[in-house]
Write a structure and sequence with these properties.
The protein is of the alpha/beta class. Among the domains are: 73 residues, no CATH class; 44 residues; 117 residues, Ribonuclease H-like superfamily/Ribonuclease H (Nucleotidyltransferase, domain 5). Helices cover 44% and strands 14% of the residues. The chain contains twelve helices and seven strands. The protein has a five-stranded mixed β-sheet, with helices on both faces. Strands 6-7 form a two-stranded antiparallel ribbon. Strand 2 and strand 3 form a beta hairpin. The longest helix is centred in the first third of the chain and has 19 residues. It is elongated.
């Protein structure tokens, strides 16, 4: 009885606003408890009501019995997240999707140029008339697992101008003599820098060929050769005097000197296998004619189907196609000539 009187007295002291909110809270809890269920479940509407009451009424915890006050606070935080998720929702369709061909081009550029970053690729795209942002380029670039490094092909291409390869090959004559042909090949453009013929190669003779191949301080930095005994002390001293560093391949490993080996194979297949050699003079003349064709007319796969001496592309409007026999008719050169 005393407790009822005490509550009545407290109710009289409360403001009308507090009484209204308390009645609303109590009525809501009675409504929840009177629902036909063993364990009444609160709906989103119920949760919203208690979240609002917790914001506008200081004594909302006192009449609360159906749930814990911490639960109402958790509801409020969840509602806060949902509200800002709704407020931050995209209100337009977004940016236009980057076309597939542009994405592939960005990836190709980053693979082909591992030293390029997003600004460099972006600048290249702008020069191609492709308007994309630098952030887009950075998004679609290929991420390299290791620090950027050039390929071996690029490394060798950049150093090929300083590398020459030398080797011998033999040619039998009509009188069953064996002639030795010494070839000096520039690796950069597969150009035959020098050649000569002898029947008895000596170390001094080979050293003199190197001097004749590179006069006036035009010697390369590196020379690739095999371990043939013909390259004796005199040859080594002559090469060192020209400040050329020799790179010796492994024994019985001709594939380690591929450029000159391939050139010798072409000389045999395209020329010497179809000619009977009579003398040194005859062999020099045949090789000189073939090397003219080799340098000016013959296309090479390793040079993107160009010649060691670059051969210009002739437009169709230059005239009809003419032909010129070379190497005694074994090969032909085709060109356009005005009538």
């Amino acid at each position: 009885m005393i407790s009822i009187l005490f509550r009545t007295l407290l109710s009289a002291l409360k403001s009308d606003r507090a009484l209204v909110l308390e009645n609303l809270a109590l009525r809501h809890q009675l409504d929840v408890l009177q629902r036909n269920a063993k364990r009444p479940r609160l709906t989103n509407r119920d949760r919203t009501l208690w979240v609002i009451l917790s914001r506008v009424w200081d004594d909302w915890r006192n009449p609360l019995t159906v749930v814990q006050p911490e639960t109402v606070i958790r509801w409020h935080r969840r509602g806060f997240r949902l509200y800002w998720r709704w407020k931050s929702r995209p209100r337009w369709a977004g940016r236009r999707k980057v076309p597939k061909e542009i994405r592939e081009l960005i990836r190709q550029m980053s693979r082909d140029n591992p030293l390029w970053g997003a600004p460099r690729i972006h600048g290249e795209l702008l020069k191609l008339g492709i308007e994309v942002s630098q952030a887009t380029v950075s998004k679609y670039m290929v991420r390299h697992r290791k620090p950027p490094s050039q390929s071996w092909r690029t490394f060798l291409t950049n150093h090929a101008k300083d590398i020459v390869s030398v080797d011998f090959f033999t040619v039998p004559t009509a009188t069953f003599r064996v002639l030795f042909v010494f070839v000096v090949l520039s690796n950069q453009r597969r150009r035959i820098v020098h050649f000569n013929v002898t029947d008895s190669p000596t170390s001094c003779w080979i050293g003199q060929q190197i001097v004749e191949a590179f006069p006036w301080d035009r010697a390369p930095k590196y020379m690739i050769r095999d371990r043939d005994k013909k390259y004796g002390e005199a040859f080594v001293r002559r090469v060192e005097s020209l400040d050329i560093k020799q790179v010796l391949i492994t024994t019985q490993s001709p594939w380690q000197n591929p450029y000159v080996e391939r050139a010798i194979g072409s000389i045999r297949r395209e020329c010497l296998d179809h000619v009977i050699i009579f003398s040194e003079r005859h062999l020099r003349r045949v090789l000189r004619n073939y090397f003219t064709y080799y340098h000016k007319s013959r296309t090479h796969l390793g040079l993107n189907k160009d010649c060691p001496r670059p051969r210009p592309v002739e437009a169709p409007d230059l005239g009809p196609i003419r032909t010129e026999p070379m190497v005694g008719g074994l090969h032909h050169r085709y060109f356009r000539q005005t009538a």
